[in-house]
Amino acid sequence: LPAERMEHENSNVVTEFILAGLTQSQNIQLLVFVLVLIFCLILPGNFLIIFTIRSDPGLTAPLYFLGNLAFLDASYSFIVAPRMLVDFLSEKKVISYRGCIIQPFFLHFLGGGEGLLLVVMAFDRYIAICRPLHYSTVMNPRTLFVGLVVTSCTVGFLHTVSQLAFTLYLPFCGPNVIDSFFCDLPLVIQLACIDIYVLGIFMISTSGVIALISFLLLLTSYIIVLVTIKDLSSTGSSKAFSTYFLVDKFLSLFYTILTLFLNPLIYTLTNQEVKTANNRKLKLESIHLV
Length: 290
What we know:
Keywords: Cell membrane, Disulfide bond, G-protein coupled receptor, Membrane, Olfaction, Receptor, Sensory transduction, Transducer, Transmembrane, Transmembrane helix. By secondary structure, the chain is mainly alpha-helical.
């Protein structure tokens, strides 16, 4: 394939990149320690969510979204954090050319899929609050499993391919030092031996379009839900209102490193159904132990 041939030619010139984003300063060491702590807390919470949702058929269908969100978070946490910790302990912080292509692939794929999944979850909340009588019809298993989740993953994949397709054809024949602790794609293409101005604009545009569309869809759904809740005064509506603000708190931190840690806490571990299911499992385990 042309892409594979070009990748092979590129790697004959530049076989590895040096990650220069980590230093021995005390501030960076403190940051790494915090990241280690967060990384250790991310996985148990997300695995608990996945296990609970898969093993308890009594949980409602919308929690399928939460299970997928937890899976994306758990996978996302393996992309940068482990490599960062290894580099922190290594004198020579080097990553291969192939590894520097694979890392941003999964970063964009999982990150894009997660952002679109949040839009899907916003649509689910909109139907549940604004069209409750149509919920069971609209959010049927085919729409839930095949339509929305697969679509979000597919769009995330296409976004990733669009970001990396041209990168494979770039000639890297000179500097190989990336001023970051991971292979940040805009920094990688700056090391190419040709003018990458047009490619840089293209990458920013595609990422910006997806981010803007996701933001507008989220904003629209929130406005509609807020207007609907304002006109209602029942107990169920107030519960929906509190759930809405839990999600809103999460969105303010979505694009920071805390997103992977806060997702389980805000979306699922505070969910009453999940807590009830976990308590039920603990009681069963206690009975078996006795």
